[in-house]
Hints:
By secondary structure, the chain is α+β, with helices and mostly antiparallel strands. It has two domains: 19-104, Immunoglobulins (Immunoglobulin-like, Sandwich); 111-188, no CATH class. The protein is built from three helices and 13 strands. The strands form four sheets. A four-stranded antiparallel sheet has the order 3-2-5-6. The protein has a four-stranded mixed sheet with strand order 11-8-12-13, with no helix packed on it. A three-stranded mixed sheet has the order 4-1-7, with no helix packed on it. A hairpin with a 4-residue loop joins β12 (179-181) and β13 (186-187). Zinc ion is lined by residues 118, 120-121, 126, 181, 183-184.
Amino acid sequence: MRLKFFLHFLFISFVSFSQNGKLTGKLILKDVENYKSVSEKTYIILKTGNRIDSVKVNHNLSFVFNNLATDTLRLSISPRTYPTNIIYRVCLKENEVKHVEIPYASICPYSEGKGNVCPVCKKNDQVIPIVYGFTMKIKYRDKNGNATDKNGKIISKEEEEKVTSKQGGCVITDCQPNWFCQLDNIDF
Ligand SMILES: [Zn+2]
């Protein structure tokens, strides 16, 4: 009788505290040339309400977390991902198994050293610089009201209205694009 009660109690505990959720995932590496080093040193960090876990990715950049309770999971990657470090949220229901694929870049994809040639059209004739911080466009006029450049040389209306830079916003991070191709509509 006592044993039966005990077993019953055990069963109840098992049901109410079951943590059979599972999260599997894979990093989709953008800088594939760094595949080896990424597979050797990259950790996935998982935070839930009351616990922090981390696992190293395996040789094919996948990972698994077992025994998860119903919760909102917050996933991040160490070392951080570029251009912006992102925390992913995954909602896990009871006993649910979820798979996530996370884009990952181990290095900043933008570099001033790469120059202003567009990676898509391979040209720079439609490329303009991206300007960060507060900027304003200054228009110059000579004494007769003609539009001029900053050196006082008269310029045409088209030249005056030509877009010469893209506003990059006021938030400056350690990894941001320097150029914009107007033809392909991409930052690089
Ligand atoms: Zn282009």
